[in-house]
Design goal:
The structure holds two protein chains of two kinds.
Chain A: H1 3-13, H2 20-40, H3 44-57, H4 66-83, E1 87-89, E2 99-103, H5 111-122, E3 130-134, H6 144-150, E4 154-155, H7 158-166, E5 170-173, H8 178-181, H9 197-204, E6 209-215, H10 228-234, E7 259-262, H11 276-300
Parallel strand pairs in A: 1-7, 2-5, 2-6, 3-4, 3-5
Antiparallel strand pairs in A: 6-7
Helix pairs in contact in A: 4-5
Chain B: E1 11-15, H1 20-29, E2 34-39, E3 51-54, H2 61-66, E4 71-76, H3 87-107, E5 112-116, H4 148-163, E6 168-174, E7 176-178, H5 184-190, E8 193-197, E9 203-204, E10 206-208, H6 209-219, E11 226-230, E12 236-237, H7 238-244, E13 248-252, H8 254-266, H9 289-295, H10 303-308
Parallel strand pairs in B: 1-2, 1-4, 2-3, 4-5, 5-6, 6-11, 7-10, 8-13
Antiparallel strand pairs in B: 9-12
Classes of the chains: A alpha/beta, B alpha/beta.
């Protein structure tokens, strides 16, 4: 008997009033549904519907696929609600329409972007799809490139950022770039240099900037530093030395508690083609406000894990 | 959409008029204005009021055609593209033909030149913006030498645009043209099982052959000049396009597909050169808002009718 038929038969007998086995199957299925419901929240389908509706009317040339995004959201719900138990503060500051989220980047593996995306989907009202710019070389990777397209992540070139904002999307950028992701444990919560490109685009498209502080990601992997010769030998940008990966189960990030602090929207004016020094002053204001949010959030937190 | 107003007194020279797209253009054009068809091939079942010259575009005899009275425009479709032909010869011929044509345009004071280029001249690249505008660099030849001819023709016409302000020069860069035409994208979608690259599913744009013909008519309206991208219905993922057409996709790992296609091409089993795989791997799409505002262009065919036009053989 092929397994498909077998499953169907068990399912058929799963109706109430069957034998002991059927009652167990029925109970298990019920429990699974309940767990799923609790994980995704009672309004999950409504949130998906709101977004599908939006992308039926807004033409998206980037290949966003609401069905695929729904599945990705269901997976990220586990990390968002169970694994990292994210606490979200001030998400009501995120205005409607086009908006640029600027966050600190950290954690050796950029899970922070996924968690911010999950927060925008599960905790914002109405739900928003977070678009982020991904590195160009991901477009050369099979499966990764197709997956990123479908869940709304786009190749990081300025034209794409401009187009997304003009479509009224919510765009996340990490001006620290890879420098933030790979910094060692000793420099946690100290922001690296910020790139200037995001500010020029925000001014040009008159987009409000919402600073976001991500707390918790910086402790998920304890990196002692960068092994330069190994990175060179393997042709990687960096090779972080993370001892925990040698412990069984340590390959997963530590289950720290994530806290997201959204600041008040900031608006900037002026000439987008100004000299770097003038743009850098404006960028400095954003960087400072993220640093403040980080300091406040760190002072208020009692434990890394709870 | 109202038919564009053309001057019925002036004649339009159409090169490459006997190709599938050329014949459609001549049919759309000959009731509005005088048409002089030019091709090295014969023109069977040609409309009675169309005059046809069987002539090599690069030859001296082509000059005689420009001496016909009242030549007001040149539409250049006669770009030879045979993937298996000797590259040097066919490159020299294409470039020489265009050079001679533009010399005649200048000498005889032809007021309008329309070149049908292609959006493929931008090249599919991993770091392309999702939609390219007309200012983007033409980088296709870097990885795919087969398209070098077209890039060079496009650039030569651009320099003519600046050199000869008395002539209104129009360059049209349409995305993948679908229909009864025998070009790579139509042939690709006509395959029974459509090979795709495993794990890659880029967004693609297609345009119906008749929408291209209408865009050429719009470009012939006096006063219009410049470079225009042309796109059809909104972009769609390649896998979705294949599914809409009712075909089955056959995903092949990229390394395997590249090696296999290279051999098959060398043995002349296929007409797709291996570097063309990048067009189903990376994005190469255009922003056609300039054509929509300046030329007043809008595609008349929706996605389904554009895709299914590849199976349409009524006119053959």
């Amino acid at each position: 008997m092929d397994p498909k038929t077998a499953l169907v038969r068990i399912g058929d007998r799963g109706a109430p009033g069957g034998g002991l086995l059927s009652r167990i199957v029925h109970g298990a299925r019920h429990a699974a549904e309940e767990v799923g419901q609790r994980l995704l929240g009672p309004d999950f389908d409504d949130r998906v519907r709101v977004l599908s509706e939006r992308y039926r009317t807004v033409r998206d040339p980037f290949g966003f696929d609401p069905e695929m995004a729904r599945r990705a959201a269901a997976v990220s719900a586990f990390f968002h609600r169970v694994y990292f138990r994210t606490e979200v503060f001030g998400i009501e500051h995120v205005p409607e329409g086009r908006v640029l989220l600027v966050a600190n980047h950290s954690g050796q593996i950029p899970i922070d972007a996924a968690i911010i995306g999950a927060a925008m989907f599960f905790d914002a009202n109405p739900p928003r799809v977070m678009r982020a710019l991904v590195d160009k070389w991901t477009a050369t990777l099979p499966f990764v490139s197709a997956f990123f397209n479908r869940v709304g992540q786009v190749v990081g070139v300025p034209e794409n950022a401009r187009r997304l904002l003009e479509m009224g999307e919510l765009l996340l950028v990490f001006p620290e770039g890879t420098r933030g992701v790979v910094k060692p444990f000793s420099r946690r919560y100290q922001l690296e240099e910020f790139g200037l490109g995001f500010m020029r685009i925000a001014i040009e498209t008159a987009t409000p900037i919402v600073p976001v502080a991500v707390i918790g990601a910086e402790e998920q992997y304890v990196s002692l530093g960068n092994v330069r010769w190994a990175a060179r030998a393997l042709n990687f940008p960096v090779f972080p030395l993370v001892p925990q990966v040698f412990v069984p189960g340590g390959q997963l990030p530590l289950p720290t508690k994530y806290r997201l602090h959204f600041g008040e929207p900031m608006r900037f004016h002026g000439d987008p083609d100004d000299d770097d020094t003038i743009i850098a002053d404006k960028v400095w204001l954003v960087r400072q406000s993220i640093q403040h949010l980080l300091a406040r959030g760190l002072a208020a937190r009692r434990s890394v894990f709870f | 959409m109202a038919a564009p107003q053309l001057d019925p007194e002036h004649a339009v020279i159409v090169t490459g008029a006997c190709g599938r797209l050329g014949r459609r253009l001549v049919r759309a054009l000959h009731r509005r204005t005088r048409v002089i068809a030019v091709d090295h091939r014969d023109f069977p079942r040609r409309p009675a009021d169309v005059e046809h010259h069987t002539v090599d575009l690069a030859s001296k005899r082509m000059r005689e055609v420009f001496k016909r009275p009242g030549v007001g425009a040149l539409v250049h479709l006669g770009v030879v593209h045979d993937p298996h032909a000797q590259k040097e010869r066919h490159h020299a011929w294409n470039v020489l033909a265009l050079k001679r044509l533009l010399e005649s345009v200048e000498q005889y004071g032809v007021r309008k030149v329309v070149l049908l280029s292609s959006a493929n001249v931008y090249g599919p690249r991993p770091d392309n913006p999702q939609l390219l505008n007309e200012d983007a660099p033409l980088l296709a030849a870097g990885r795919f030498s087969g398209i070098r001819d077209l890039v060079e023709l496009d650039l030569a016409t651009q320099s003519f645009f600046w050199r000869s302000p008395d002539t209104e020069t129009v360059i049209l860069r349409p995305t993948h043209i679908l229909g009864t035409v025998r070009n790579a994208p139509s042939n690709y979608l006509r395959l029974k099982r459509v090979p795709t690259l495993l794990g890659f599913d880029p967004m693609v744009q297609v345009i119906h052959q008749d929408d291209v013909v209408r865009a050429i008519l719009l470009a012939l309206v006096p006063g219009r000049r410049g470079i225009f991208n042309l796109a059809g219905p909104p972009p769609v993922a390649l896998s979705r396009a294949i599914a809409l057409l009712g075909r089955k996709a056959m995903p092949v790992p990229h390394a395997l597909a590249g090696a296999a296609l290279e051999r098959m091409f060398r043995w002349r089993v296929t007409s797709f050169p291996a570097p063309e795989l990048d067009y189903i791997r990376y994005v190469c799409m255009v922003d056609d808002s300039r054509a929509r505002t300046v030329l007043d262009y809008a595609p008349a065919h929706d996605l389904f009718s554009t895709l299914s036009a590849v199976d349409d053989e009524r006119w053959v």
